Amino acid sequence: MSKVAVIGMGGTIAMAPSASGGIVPSLAADDLVASVPGLATLDAKITATTLRSLPSPSLGFADLVELSDRVRAEIAGGADGVVITHGTDTIEETAFFLDLTVPEDAPVVVTGAMRHPEAPGADGPANLYAAISVALAPAARGLGCLVVMSDEVHGARFVRKSHTSSTGAFVSPGFGPLGLVVEGDPRIRGAARVGLTLPADPRVVERRVGMVTMALGDDGTLLRLAGMDPPAFDGLVIAGLGAGHVPAAIVPLVAELAARVPVVLSTRTGSGSVLRQTYGYPGSERDLLERGLIHSGFLDPAKARVLLQLLLASNAEKPEIIAAFDQYR
Question: What global pTM score does this model have?
Answer without folding.
Answer: 0.96
